[in-house]
Protein 1
Amino acid sequence: MPVLIFFVAHWYLSLFVQTFYLHRYAAHKMFTMNRFWERFFFLLTYIAQGSSFLSPRAYAVLHRMHHAFSDTERDPHSPHFSNNAFTMMWKTKDIYNDVLNRRVEPEARFEGNYPLWTAVENFGDTWMSRVLWGTAYVLFYIAFATQWWMFLLLPFHFLMGPLHGAIVNWSGHKYGYQNFDNHDKSRNSLFFDFLTGGELFQNNHHKLPNRVNFGVKWWEVDPTYPVIWTLDKLRIIRLKKVRA
Ligand SMILES: [Zn+2]
Ligand SMILES: [Zn+2]
């Protein structure tokens, strides 16, 4: 039981920081927050993603490229230019590392207006940090796993951040229905997106990239939106006026 609780908790916490902080805040700036909360959620992103921590800056740059070049050859992760989800992940990883280590210079329009914390970013990308987190997951499983098959869940923990990205980018541009014609292949994969925190309403999101609620129809439930709404009411963040 502790193993399953740990798996579900890690899945959803890691998903939350990806959709709330990396995607909706770092890449799109759908809301603002003061420096204390920006650092708080930066640190939470590092802790939640652990061994697969993604830099908010590199995530934001790649994601802005994705919106600009959606489903074209210049899209960093379109399923229509890779044979399978693993080759797509690998290609995305290479572009991510080039941007992260400043080996390529992204177009100026993709840069700026994202949270920066060099110390955490640099440490989070070291092998020491990644291996320490990985070891902690293994030790937890050694202590609490009651069945051998539970150890098969470990790779999910190691790669949680990129895995969520791959599920969303593969499925969200391949399977499901479309509310809007966005001149790309973005789709809404689920009616109730509890598995990926609203991220699989890709078709809605590409049409309305500044809209904080990814559900558009009354029956499309974006479970992250009520959390964001509450954080706004608590004045931890300030939602921007919707321009969409
Ligand atoms: Zn997309
Ligand atoms: Zn987006």
Protein 2
Amino acid sequence: MVKQAAVVVLLAFLTGAARSAGAQSLRGLRGETEEARTDQQQPRRNAHPVVAITFDDLPAVGTLPAGETYVDVAKSLVSELKANGLEGTYGFVNGDKLASRPGGPEALRIWLDAGMNIGNHSWSHMRLTTNTAEAFEQDIAQNEPTLRQYGEVRDWRWFRYPYLEEGESVEKRRAVRAYLSEHGYRIAQVTLQFADYEWNDAYCRCRAKQDEAAIARLKQSYLDAAAEDITLAREEERLVFGREIPDVMLLHETPFTTLMLPDLLGLLRKQGFSFESLSQVESDPAYADDTDAGSESGGTFQGQFMDSRHLPYPPVEPDPYQQVSQLCQ
Ligand SMILES: [Zn+2]
């Protein structure tokens, strides 16, 4: 858990750093070419954006507020998803968490009994960049008995790469992709992710201190970060694909994301989004494309194309994670 948290913070830092560097170069570019740009050159925004909501690190992840259990979190989450007609939502499972998270098996059973789906997120949340393709493939295979046992007749052959890392070399990327394809898997890509897990520890601290003002700030900053990520991702998609593509949002089943889900779904609706299943979204031809390039940092689907084509990232607001980590200390 500690190791994973450290890696997650590092990933958020690296993502932020990459974006900042990109933002600088785009600002420079805009400064030089602003006069030359016309309204006609601005791609039009898709009037009816769609998104599939997905969750990683099932059966349970994140610190719990005092008095709450992972089973409570799972019950709240599925009840909110069902209230919004989001049965069939995919949750990506690490089999090793069933033993290490108190109530893990029950939490997973609640997810499935509510009509949600599960997919493979590797047995141990293995990082591909620091492991061989063979070890990674073994870790995928090790997760299958659990998926078979819990998923039964469901289509669980969807794979979500831990840390969104698909291999630092093109050889490794190709090897794992070939393995996935041979074993009938589709890759569960991600276009929207704002590191939703980063708010959870601060939320637990603020709950313990009963600091309602700080919790209100956390809620606002979470929604602001989500809104900014959506705007940026859509802009990146226009840069990469020449249009906005159906989106896949990555969330985690933490207590804070569970609490925020109604507001987050409300934000998406306000922005015109409607909800589709993962397979509906990925039936868009854009998802048949592949950078076929190694990447140390991995990242979102469109982000990997941004990197492989050396496209400058759109400008970003200052990183909220530093401020969040200091709240209620
Ligand atoms: Zn994960």
